[in-house]
Design a protein that fits this description.
- The chain is an all-alpha fold and about 250 residues long.
- It contains eight helices and no strands.
- The protein is globular and about 60 Å long.
């Protein structure tokens, strides 16, 4: 079903996508914090980091609660990090853009939004701790399996991950230090499941470009590569197939 069948349907889908995205963004920010702190992410109420007071319903509306409370805790008045709001806003926008670009409500859209959610969560964790939790990788694989097993996609995952692993081992010997973490290689495997072989190759090139961009922005020798892979994958989900088809047509294939 196309979201552009009526103005009402378009607006409804955009608003719903933003709400769902921002809710998941808020949840994933909390999950990443708890994983980094080695706490159980599935139990306990959300609390203020400053005073420890459990948050009420008025404190839990993504984006709007932060704006309404002027970025402060309602109980102790401590200034809260803007990371909370931007993590909610970010995934909400990503959901909206994907829905608008795809324009069709189908299982493929649902599958890709699930992947984007996992990518967002592992990116938050990687940015904060330089680690990609296995839980996000496993969830992405299970989510892929729910939509049907594809041997070709599985093979693509092993090929792209194996190639990256060999390349990283070579770079380790040349640079005399670790060039890529194990979590990044696992993530390339997941990308292969969703994008296939040709889409994954395009994604690999794009991820390297985003990685270089992060080096320039963060001005650090060591960067979390997970967010670069995630950004590349998001672009690949939106436009990767068009690019691959265009490139293959140039080659006459």
């Amino acid at each position: 079903m196309s979201i552009y069948d009526s103005t009402f349907l378009t607006v409804y889908c955009v608003v719903l996508a933003f709400i769902l995205g921002s809710v998941f963004g808020s949840f994933l920010n909390c999950v990443s914090d708890r994983i980094i702190a080695h706490e159980k992410w599935w139990t306990g109420r959300s609390k203020c980091d400053a005073c420890g007071h459990e948050l009420g319903i008025l404190d839990l509306f993504p984006v709007f609660s932060y704006l309404f409370l002027k970025g402060k805790c309602r109980y102790c008045g401590t200034k809260l990090s803007s990371t909370y709001m931007f993590s909610e806003l970010g995934l909400g926008i990503l959901f909206v853009v994907m829905v608008l670009v795809r324009g069709t409500l189908d299982l493929t859209l649902l599958k890709d939004l699930g992947l984007v959610t996992c990518l967002y969560g592992l990116s938050l964790s990687d940015l904060k701790s330089y680690e990609i939790p296995d839980g996000f990788i496993l969830t992405s694989i299970i989510w892929w399996l729910l939509f049907g097993f594809d041997p070709k996609s599985l093979a693509a995952g092993f090929v792209i991950a194996g190639s990256v692993l060999l390349l990283s081992l070579l770079m380790d010997k040349i640079l005399k230090k670790e060039s890529m973490g194990g979590g990044d290689i696992k993530l390339f495997f997941v990308v292969g499941l969703y994008l296939g072989l040709y889409g994954s190759l395009f994604n690999l090139i794009l991820a390297c470009l985003f990685g270089l961009l992060l080096v320039v922005i963060l001005k650090k020798n060591k960067i979390p590569f997970g967010p670069a892979i995630a950004m590349a994958t998001y672009i690949s989900l939106l436009y990767g197939s068009q690019f691959v088809n265009w490139y293959m047509s140039i080659l006459g294939m």
